[in-house]
Amino acid sequence: MRSANTCWARNAGRCAMKNSLWAKRIRGAGKAVGRQVAMMLVAIVIVMIFLAVSGYDPAAVLQGLGRAFTRDLAGTIRWATPLILAGVAVCIPFKAEVFNLGVDGQIYLGAIASTWIALALPETTGRLGLLPVFLAGAAAGALFALIPALMKVYFGTDMVVTTLLLNFVGQLLTEFMAAEVMRDPEKITQMNASRTLPEALWMPKLGAFGASSASVGIYLAVIVALIAAFLFFKTTLGYEIKLVGTNQQFARYGGMKPNGIILKVMALSGAVAGVIGAMEVTAVQHKLIAAFNPDIGFDGIVVALLANNNPLGVILSGFFFGALKNGGSIMQRVTSVPQIVTEIIMAIIILTISADVGFKFIRRRKERKTHGNAV
């Protein structure tokens, strides 16, 4: 009887600890979501004040966002899809304090590889052909991302510089491929683009939105974000990534290899970016176009920062910026407010995040000084 009571007490204790842990996680998630929503609202309010001072209708921002979520939800999903993936591509290396500013270049390489495979496949392949198309895009993005990572590991180069410069390489290579190597010879116009992909290799549209640009790729984007969250919170690799980002020397002392982690996170980040390229080709453009990428990678940095590098938060911030991009074009059509206002909102969010990080840094320094004086 005593042994049964002891066993029950132990199980009850374990359950209580698990419940406490889950409660803590839920509270943390709630705070993170609240922080995101607060920053979004602050940015919108500041822009509304700016518009009012400039002589525009301040309600135009709310009108554009409202229509983006109600009358043109398909357009919002179209932009949220690549932005969620870009946010994940950015936050994976950021967790290890590795700064990948070359997501746009990796998107270009993913688009080139996926188009090449799609045009090479026989038309009888059907929907199954999408698998090698996306695998090719992911592989090309990963290999392109490994170039600056290897330069960092073996030559100590600054990854901020190398990843940023490789964006221009990716862009120029795409222009060359679209204008010369893969250009459609049957096109009468001077548009630099490849042949149109077979319809069987077009990403299926969301049935509820008919012939819109919203595709089932949104499901893939959310799944990738969930996989990234599982990687960070439930795997040994995720623990190593966070530890390397916190303290490389301590991680090395614990038997980890920071250089190996750098290569892994860059390969994963590049693979996700390559998927964006494949998505843009198969779901939106249906061909390789020279200038198809409107700086999705750089927008992904803002998405990741707003989500505090949390893949689950990236889903929310990705939808917000998707609505912002879509709402900006709607706002310009239905009001006199220019679309550039959306860029101002992004800039304000970056400033808000920077101020938040700065205040935390100052607070930590004060605490250290207080603790040092007390000792």
Automatic annotation (TrEMBL):
It is a multi-pass membrane protein. Pfam families: BPD_transp_2 (PF02653). Keywords: Cell membrane, Membrane, Transmembrane, Transmembrane helix. It comes from the Bacteria. GO terms for cellular component: plasma membrane. It is found in: Cell membrane. InterPro entries: ABC_transp_permease (IPR001851). The chain crosses the membrane at residues 37-56, 76-94, 106-122, 128-146, 153-173, 206-233, 261-279, 340-359. This is ABC transporter permease. It comes from Anaerotruncus massiliensis. The lineage of its organism: Bacteria, Bacillati, Bacillota, Clostridia, Eubacteriales.
